């Protein structure tokens, strides 16, 4: 039974209890506990069910590598799935739920899967559920989803908030163990600006637990002293609870800081994502102990040896009373020594090596611990947790020599450097025979733009496994990083540690070496994804020889822990099965983040009101106060209609159109793009950009123009006004302002760089208001001012500058509705005042603000095209009957040659026509005109489609435009448009202009 | 003339720093060949200022010139004098290829005041630029982004920074600055 010891625990404060619940049960820990140590202290060894077989699982590790002990933390708005109990700091009121249990953790129906495990081998999903096809979606998948899985996704809006933090610095050191501290000190002493990150709340890493001695004192004291000196250095920043998450090109890296996870407070950001640009990055990320593959190695109570002593030394808790230690190296003995020192029972140390003669084994022997060289575990047995260990010869086939009663097994399969961050950006690895692990190859580091390495490793992350080696390597890394970043100041010597003189470890991939199938099929490699030795062997037999294929076939290393424990063991087994060398097999790809980071921290501040910038016109407040229904146009929100007094949106649109056509309407057109184009070459520049001639436009006049891309397709349209001799003002669509500005700049900067043209985007300088309808002039004239708005002084397609009332204004006589219409541009700072003045002056005429839908209907009644409705990136102006806007006189314009290609001049292209339903109904948007017969794919043939369709209040019937094969040549023909309900509606091909075709109304 | 109003008149917030909308500010975009002495002489005649060197700014008693790109300057002046400056510059530059546009109302400006380190921290939360004092000294202009929109900012004193964005996103930028300077969210880095 796990429990808290009477004394000990360097990280806890026993005087400060902390209450929490696990699966609804109240438990207690103390300040400084992790959830893992608090669960042990409460006697809770079973913490979850495995992914596939629902096997009972316990805590294996003491840090970020934990595969089993994942819980759902918090409730509702603070719920978070898949939290590792080993990295969760305990606080008062913490609530945790185990995952993948059904109906309860202790009694789980899914455990039957384990009994069926021989029917659920690697690749089983791929093989079993191929047939019948329909069964997958309706039967297999729902059942698998019920029984397999880890955390549930949160169902509520997150109560917390998050932020980003961007910095640029010289050297980032990832990892605050003795290597990281040493590297940071060396780099800092050399003068570099240093940021030192530690993912846990504590500095010093494992050294204090392992009893390391540095510069003549215990590690704990040395860490404290070093920290003090680092804190005193103005060029060094220290950050705990901040994990180096990813390393990317050009010295860019991400770090995830957990600000309030240990002390929830919704008023401050919960996580902060550091976006760091560093000259040099040092990964001092340490090493992770490997598991050993013996039968029953996933039973609760089987743990990493290092984790067992972490719990004893750091938290004063033990997973069990009687711990069998099984190891293939000297380091595992440290656990036996720790346990024995804490007064616990260690019945035996099983050393897979034939000799146990190092300093640590000798010390263990002196303490009276029984050591058996050449032995391993045949299997661990127990119901729901470790009860006994069957001992065998490591070199044999698992015949049990002896059975030892135990409730905990501490295993040590050797250490693998944490190479993830080194590898993220292309750092390569080499295989160390000596330590049976992959370590970073300093000759093949991730390189920056200058071809020089920008990532260095320090300490155990380099593959150094002795304290002295770690310190020397880290000191050197710190110095090198500073030098590479341009700092040369002299630094002191590396700290030193007494020679530990470990004896060589021995690689053990199967325990025992000749374990039969029965044992291998109970030997877990990947705990989290339930992958066993036999699964990887099967993958190899079935031809999944590449490590990347085997990974995906077996799902080895694909769980939320990304195989931190299983990686090396898995590929060693694969190599054995393939009869290949381990380095030949290679590793899978290490991808960021190192451990999962919250989606919230990735989003940062971008949520709620800040999710996306919303562009607001100076009249937006009025729109909101007057019941506007909005639609997104680019990043703007334009009023779609202004429903009043409970009317429907459709009714509002009808009212707005009728008011405009009969009296006067008001449109906020501020969002339209406004680009000033100026210079001696501006005329010829615009002649190239527009299909029609802009250089000949007279000062004071406006012209409607079309812009195409190089492929000839219509891209934007708008009215161009000539301001003076060398200045034009180009209006673009609302969504096109930035895009067309960029388009112009691109051509000016890359192709016509020697043309003297400047472009300025002045879109937001002006509030532009459409005053539209037969009473428009009367309303404006009421306001007075200097402008003569008469037909003679300001004819259709002209503009004039002056003042309306007291507001400086430019009045354009342009119309998109077919009515007498003025678009008035005033400075944005006076836009709202002008709008208010118009409302007041127009009150006697029933002046009516209208939205984009009324705008669209009125333009459609006039047969005007709309970019994005009649165009979709495949439509050329000629398709739309806009040949009148294409200059025949010009040698060239963007799109001209493309429009001469055979496909573009094909008489069978779909062309714009009006469509009039025989029954007066409104055609469905996007509906296709069906033709007789089917195409080569067996689909119904089509001969056209609807591009714009509305109810026209003016005509009291549906109106539409569409693109139809040879449309303009087929006036009067009837087409059948398919409706979604399967029926068809008949429509006649007509002229697209259904309102005032002669333009008499706009030209008054 | 009716009373002109800025984008977010009177918006202010107080957290780790003070954020306030700066009110009406005259701003002119000036395009031209900054290396041409005829051009720079003309600018000096009208504004009394030399053209700032790359990324820098120059100030007179009333106006400030910001370097925006190798062929672009921004002139800051009183809002009600902006049109007059446009006319004066257009006249003075008539012999040179140029563009001068009044963009006073196309922008919003915010003033950030408080401890220099705190201001730098607020900007570092929303902007990728290097905010170290050595990388962005007083008077240097940074054209960059804040979260998802374009912005330019500079320090006029160590305890005072100015940020310009487009008028339409003034509220977004104000909310960003307010959120990023919320009490308790201090990073303690700079």
Outline:
Chain A has 1004 residues and is α+β, with helices and mostly antiparallel strands. In chain A, 23% of the residues lie in helices and 28% in strands.
Description:
The complex is a heterodimer of chains A (1004) and B (190). With 1004 residues, chain A is an alpha+beta fold. In chain A, 23% of the residues lie in helices and 28% in strands. Chain A is built from 25 helices and 51 strands. In chain A, the strands form 14 sheets. In chain A, strands 9, 10, 13, 14, 15, 16 and 30 form a 7-stranded mixed beta sheet that branches. Chain A has a 6-stranded mixed beta sheet with strand order 42-43-44-41-35-45. A 6-stranded antiparallel barrel of chain A has the order 46-49-48-47-50-51. The termini of chain A are far apart. The model of chain A has no long low-confidence stretch (mean pLDDT 94). Chain B is an alpha+beta fold and 190 residues long. Chain B is 23% helix and 32% strand. In chain B, the strands form 2 sheets. A 6-stranded antiparallel beta sheet of chain B has the order 1-2-8-11-10-9, covered by helices on one side. In chain B, a hairpin with a 4-residue loop joins strand 4 and strand 5. In chain B, helix 1 (37-47) packs antiparallel against helix 2 (82-92). The longest helix of chain B is centred in the N-terminal third of the chain and has 11 residues, at 37-47.
């Amino acid at each position: 039974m796990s429990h808290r010891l009477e004394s000990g625990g360097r990280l806890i404060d026993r005087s400060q209890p902390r209450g929490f619940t696990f699966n609804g049960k109240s438990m207690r820990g103390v300040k400084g506990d992790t959830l893992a140590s608090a669960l042990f202290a409460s006697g809770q060894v079973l913490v979850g069910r495995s992914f596939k077989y629902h096997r009972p699982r316990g805590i294996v590790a003491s840090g970020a590598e934990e595969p089993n002990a994942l819980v759902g933390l918090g409730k509702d708005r603070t719920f978070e799935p898949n939290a590792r109990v080993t990295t969760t700091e305990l606080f008062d009121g913490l609530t945790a739920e185990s995952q993948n249990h059904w109906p309860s953790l202790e009694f789980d129906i899914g455990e039957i899967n384990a009994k069926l495990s021989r029917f659920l081998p690697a690749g089983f999903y791929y093989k079993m559920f191929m047939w019948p096809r329909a069964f997958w979606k309706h039967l297999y998948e729902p059942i698998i989803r019920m029984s397999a899985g880890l955390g549930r996704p949160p169902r509520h809006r997150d109560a917390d908030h998050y932020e980003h933090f961007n910095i640029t610095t010289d050297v980032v050191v990832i990892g605050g163990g003795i290597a990281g501290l040493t590297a940071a000190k060396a780099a800092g002493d050399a003068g570099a600006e240093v940021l030192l990150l530690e993912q846990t709340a504590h500095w010093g890493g494992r050294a204090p637990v392992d009893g390391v001695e540095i510069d003549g004192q215990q590690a704990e004291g040395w860490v404290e002293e070093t920290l003090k000196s680092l804190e005193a250095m103005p060029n060094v920043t220290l950050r705990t609870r901040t994990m180096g998450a990813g390393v990317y090109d050009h010295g860019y890296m991400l770090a995830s800081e957990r600000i309030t996870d240990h002390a929830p407070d919704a008023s401050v950001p919960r996580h902060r994502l550091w976006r760091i640009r560093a000259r040099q990055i040092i990964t001092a990320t340490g090493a992770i102990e490997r598991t050993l593959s013996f039968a029953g190695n996933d039973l609760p109570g089987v743990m990493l040896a290092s984790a067992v002593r972490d719990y004893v030394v750091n938290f004063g808790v033990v997973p069990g009373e009687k711990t069998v230690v099984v190891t293939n190296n000297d380091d595992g003995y440290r656990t036996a020594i720790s346990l024995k020192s804490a007064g616990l029972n260690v019945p035996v140390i099983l050393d897979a090596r034939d000799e146990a003669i190092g300093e640590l084994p000798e010390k263990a022997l002196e303490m009276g611990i029984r050591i058996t060289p050449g032995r391993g575990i045949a299997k661990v047995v127990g119901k729901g947790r470790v009860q006994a260990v069957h001992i065998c010869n490591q070199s044999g086939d698992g015949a049990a020599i002896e059975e030892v009663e135990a409730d905990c097994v501490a295993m040590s399969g050797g250490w693998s450097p944490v190479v993830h961050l080194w590898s993220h950006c292309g750092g390569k690895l080499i295989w160390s025979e000596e330590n049976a692990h992959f370590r970073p190859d300093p000759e093949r580091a991730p390189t920056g733009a200058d071809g020089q390495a920008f990532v260095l490793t320090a300490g155990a992350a380099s593959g150094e496994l002795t304290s002295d080696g770690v310190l020397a390597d880290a000191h050197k890394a710190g110095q090198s990083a500073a030098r590479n970043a341009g700092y040369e100041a002299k630094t002191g010597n590396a700290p030193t540690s007494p020679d530990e003189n470990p004896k060589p470890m021995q690689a053990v991939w199967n325990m025992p070496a000749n374990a039969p199938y029965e044992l291998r099929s109970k030997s877990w490699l990947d705990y989290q994804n339930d992958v066993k030795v036999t699964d990887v062997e099967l993958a190899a037999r079935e031809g999944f020889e590449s490590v990347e294929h085997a990974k995906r076939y077996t799902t080895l290393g694909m769980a939320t822990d990304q195989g931190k424990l299983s990686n090396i063991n898995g590929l060693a087994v694969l190599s054995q099965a393939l009869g290949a060398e381990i380095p030949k097999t290679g590793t899978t790809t290490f991808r960021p983040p190192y451990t999962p980071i919250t989606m919230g921290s990735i989003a940062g501040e971008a949520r709620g009101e800040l999710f996306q910038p919303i562009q607001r016109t100076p009249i937006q407040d009025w729109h909101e106060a007057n019941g506007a229904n909005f639609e997104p146009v680019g990043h703007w929100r334009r009023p779609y209609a202004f429903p009043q007094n409970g009317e429907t949106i459709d009714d509002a649109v009808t009212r707005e159109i009728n008011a405009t056509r009969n009296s006067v309407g008001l449109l906020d057109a501020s969002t339209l793009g406004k680009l000033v184009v100026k210079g001696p070459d501006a005329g010829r520049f615009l002649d190239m950009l527009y299909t029609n001639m802009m250089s000949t436009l007279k000062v004071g006049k406006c012209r409607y123009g079309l812009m195409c891309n190089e492929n000839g397709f219509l891209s934007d349209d708008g009215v161009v006004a000539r301001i003076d001799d060398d200045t034009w003002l180009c209006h673009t669509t609302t969504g096109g302002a930035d895009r067309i500005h960029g388009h112009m700049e691109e051509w000016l900067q890359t192709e016509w760089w020697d043309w003297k043209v400047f472009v300025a985007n002045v879109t937001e300088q002006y509030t532009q208001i459409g005053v539209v309808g037969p009473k428009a002039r009367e309303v404006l004239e009421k306001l007075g001012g200097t402008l003569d708005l008469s037909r003679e002084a300001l004819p259709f397609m002209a503009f004039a500058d002056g003042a309306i009332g007291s507001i400086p204004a430019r009045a354009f006589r342009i119309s998109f509705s077919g009515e007498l219409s003025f678009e008035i541009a005033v400075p944005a700072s006076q836009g709202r005042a002008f709008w208010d003045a118009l409302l007041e002056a127009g009150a006697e005429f029933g002046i009516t603000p209208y939205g984009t839908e009324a705008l669209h209907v009125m333009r459609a009644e006039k047969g005007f095209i709309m970019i994005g409705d009649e165009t979709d990136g495949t439509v050329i102006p000629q398709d739309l009957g806009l040949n009148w806007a294409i200059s025949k006189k010009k040698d060239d314009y963007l799109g001209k040659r493309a429009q001469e290609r055979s496909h573009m001049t094909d008489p069978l292209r779909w062309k714009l026509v009006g469509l009039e339903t025989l029954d007066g109904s409104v055609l469905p948007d996007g509906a296709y005109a069906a033709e007789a017969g089917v195409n080569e794919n067996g689909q119904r043939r089509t001969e056209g489609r609807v591009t714009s369709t509305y109810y026209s209040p003016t005509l009291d019937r549906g109106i539409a435009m569409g693109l139809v094969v040879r449309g303009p040549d087929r006036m009067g023909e009837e087409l059948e448009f398919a409706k979604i309900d399967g029926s068809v509606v008949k429509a006649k091909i007509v002229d697209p202009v259904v309102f005032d075709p002669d333009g008499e109304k706009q030209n008054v | 003339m009716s009373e002109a109003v800025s984008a977010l008149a009177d918006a202010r917030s107080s957290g780790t720093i003070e954020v306030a909308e700066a009110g009406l500010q005259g701003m002119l975009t000036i395009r031209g060949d900054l290396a041409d002495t005829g051009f720079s002489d003309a600018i000096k005649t009208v504004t009394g200022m030399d053209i700032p060197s790359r990324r820098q700014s120059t100030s007179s008693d009333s106006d400030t010139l910001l370097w925006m790109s190798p062929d672009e300057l921004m002139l800051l002046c009183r809002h009600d004098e902006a049109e007059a400056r446009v006319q004066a510059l257009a006249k003075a530059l008539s012999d040179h290829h140029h563009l001068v546009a009044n963009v006073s109302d196309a922008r919003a400006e915010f003033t950030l005041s408080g401890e220099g380190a705190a201001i730098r921290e607020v900007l570092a939360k929303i902007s990728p630029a290097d905010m170290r004092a050595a990388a962005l000294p007083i008077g240097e202009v940074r054209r960059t982004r804040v979260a998802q929109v374009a912005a330019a900012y500079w320090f006029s004193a160590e305890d005072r920074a100015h940020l310009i964005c487009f008028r339409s996103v003034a509220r977004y930028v104000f909310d960003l600055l307010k959120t990023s300077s919320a009490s308790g969210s201090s990073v303690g880095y700079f």
